[in-house]
């Protein structure tokens, strides 16, 4: 997986040497249906639906007509994190999982479905998720991978998008000296504004 991520970042870096437009995207996203999954001994402990939101900035290069690649960084609040008594902290909840993903991104238009200035597209992200932001005396989150894929509609400088996103990591319970896999999955609705950097 690390080799794949390194390869995507390398492709993105070399792409900026190609001819084509340089763009920057400012993106905002929201989901009422974020889902946590915490595993212990390969068994799911519990799953909770929660609201979540995200902000991101992406810089891309158009390396061919309708195909862009680049890099992005974001901030994600993955929703309140509440579990049974075996995992409750003194205030009745675990610390929320906040993430900063750093990732390579690829976006390609779907010309066959274009209607006037309305251009459908596909988009994918792959990178690293820094989750260690809201630790307590007894709990801490460890970093993991981040990936996403989605479909959207670009209308001049505005993009509307639906995407599936996942942040992986581990929850460390310091008092038990144990770790548990924890993932955050969500389908997000988003909008982005594009600005030409040329």
Q: Tell me about the largest β-sheet.
A: 8 strands, antiparallel, barrel
Helix percent band: under 10%
Structural class: mainly beta
The strand line-up of the biggest sheet is 1-2-3-4-5-7-8-9
| Poorly predicted runs | none
User: H/E element string?
Assistant: HEEEEEEEEE
Number of E strands:
9
| Structural Rg | 18 Å
C-alpha termini separation: 33 Å
Concise account of the structure shown:
The chain is mostly beta strands and 198 residues long. The chain contains one helix and nine strands. The chain has an eight-stranded antiparallel barrel.
Structural features, described:
By secondary structure, the protein is mainly beta. Helix content is 7%, strand content 65%. The chain has one helix at 2-15; strands spanning 22-40, 43-64, 67-77, 98-109, 118-130, 139-142, 144-155, 158-173, 178-196.
Annotation keywords:
single chain; 198 residues; mainly beta; 8-stranded antiparallel beta barrel; 7% helix
């Amino acid at each position: 997986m690390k080799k794949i991520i390194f390869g995507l970042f390398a492709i993105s870096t070399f792409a900026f040497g190609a001819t084509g437009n340089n763009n920057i995207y400012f993106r905002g996203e929201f989901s009422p249906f974020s889902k946590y999954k915490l595993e212990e001994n390969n068994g799911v402990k519990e799953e909770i639906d929660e609201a979540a939101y995200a902000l991101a900035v992406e810089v891309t290069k158009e390396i061919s007509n309708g195909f862009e690649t680049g890099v992005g960084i974001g901030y994600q609040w993955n929703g309140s994190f509440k579990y049974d008594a075996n995992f409750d902290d003194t205030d009745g909840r675990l610390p929320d999982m906040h993430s900063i993903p750093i990732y390579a991104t690829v976006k390609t238009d779907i010309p066959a479905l274009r209607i006037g200035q309305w251009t459908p597209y596909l988009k994918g992200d792959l990178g690293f998720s820094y989750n260690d932001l809201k630790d307590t005396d007894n709990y801490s989150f460890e970093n993991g991978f981040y990936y996403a894929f989605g479909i959207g509609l670009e209308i001049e400088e505005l993009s509307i998008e639906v995407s599936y996103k996942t942040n992986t990591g581990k929850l460390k319970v310091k008092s038990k000296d144990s770790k548990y896999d924890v993932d955050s999955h969500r389908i997000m609705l988003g909008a982005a504004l594009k600005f030409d950097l040329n």
